[in-house]
Specification:
Order of helices and strands: HHHHHHH
Shape: globular
Radius of gyration: 16 Å
Number of helices: 7
Helix content: 55-70%
Largest sheet: none
Number of strands: 0
Distance between the termini: 29 Å
């Protein structure tokens, strides 16, 4: 799986704005986590500093800009995807940056393992960009495979 493409696709599906500086920080941070999962346990002592070094800024700026992205994602209208990734069930409080990274990391790892185990795969074209969308494909594939033998009810 192309993790960077998957991360960008998920963030786009959640309505994260690419013009936010924190958008690139989130992508880079998740890529670092995929290399070393332990980086999420020491987010201010490790992950923020690594991102700051990469982008030649301070860890405080990294933290603030990531918080902006988390806030924008949390206020998205794509509530179905929010529920899947963040297990959001009536929880109105946005996750902390650490929780955001942890949920996103878990979802990406789950996506990767599901791609290997799924019986059926659905390719979805984004109605907005008119291009293949990996996160929508994973979402609908999971939905279809969760239904199991009840697929006839959907179609």
């Amino acid at each position: 799986m192309n993790y960077k493409r998957a991360i960008i696709s998920i963030l786009d599906s959640l309505g994260a704005n690419k013009s936010y500086t924190g958008y690139d920080y989130v992508v880079h941070g998740l890529m670092l986590m995929l290399e070393d999962k332990e980086s999420v346990t020491c987010i201010t002592k490790s992950l923020y500093i690594d991102i700051a070094k990469h982008y030649n800024t301070t860890w405080n700026c990294v933290e603030k800009n990531i918080r902006t992205v988390v806030r924008s994602v949390w206020n998205t209208t794509n509530t179905d995807l929010l529920k899947i990734i963040f297990k959001k069930s009536g929880r109105e409080k946005k996750p902390t940056n650490k929780e955001f990274f942890k949920y996103m990391y878990d979802y990406i790892i789950e996506m990767d393992s599901d791609l290997c185990a799924d019986r059926t795969w659905i390719s979805v074209i984004c109605p907005i960009s008119n291009r293949y969308c990996e996160s929508l494909s994973v979402y609908y594939t999971k939905l279809l495979n969760t239904l199991g033998d009840d697929r006839s009810k959907v179609f």
